[in-house]
Amino acid sequence: MRVCLPHCLVAMNFIELPDDPEDTQHCPEERAAAASRSTWVSVGVNLALTATQIVVGVFAKSQGLIADGIHSLSDLVADFVVLFAGHYSKKDADEDYPYGHQRFETAASLVLGSLLLAVGLGMLWSAFRKLEAPETVQQVHVVALWVAGGALVAKETLFRYMLSVAKRVKSSMLVANAWHARSDAASSLVVGVGIAGNLAGYPILDPIAALIVGLMVTRMGWEFARDALHDLMDRAVDEQEVQAIRQTLLETPGISGVHDVRTRKMGDMIVVDAHLEVEASISVEAGHDIAVAARQRVLQRHRVLNLMTHVDPWKRPEPPRVP
After folding, report:
1. What percent of the chain has pLDDT over 90?
2. How far apart are CA 169 and CA 90, in angstroms?
3. Are 39 and 86 in contact (CB under 8 A)?
């Protein structure tokens, strides 16, 4: 087993990660390199898709394809947000940020969510305008259907690649960006159906497809922004993970009880406060050593950045007196 420094033990918000200490761990340098590679791949794909979809959408007279191109453009902006956050989140702790810079990732997820929300609302407005005047909807050119199909394949492939990297290095920011790509794949599918319907003699299906894409993007943006905002406000981790940390503490030799366990997110990591109960008759030095051992076990087995402990004396209950 290879164990990195405590701040290397990371997990993400959108997939379940085990607390097994034998799990492969990744140091910040590895995570940053993997994140940079996958994001630059995404930049190249989204740059090509944005140009192709918008240009072809304008000439083929497809509002759905133009909306999909704008969505790809938002992905391109999101990629640069991820690169920016990835650069700063890997910085070591300093005097101004004693817990490190992991929350740059959470802030990036908030920006990604807000960006998706704004793009989605804009797409909804544009689609509603078209639906109010259906006579203005024109028949699209068949080339738009081929472009939509190509975009669907490219985005789904990009999603699977980025999600595999995110799971390997355990980064919630990369998960958010991967699912951003999946939302694009789903939108391209809807757009393709709308364009096909338009070509089959139902022109109104193209702006309806744009409307559905707008709804999908808005919903995903809201979810990402909401979760990131909760984490920035020190929301606790789920009860299952808290219980796992509590169990690790209880299994430490010398600890008789644990109470007042509190957690808060720090990027992909967790900061924990806990009261540890130790035998009242032992020395202060012995109690300190037990707390240090407990902290090391938690940092090795869980995605905990720091554990602050308070040692409480515990007295063994006296047996009842026999009258």
Report:
1. 14
2. 13
3. yes
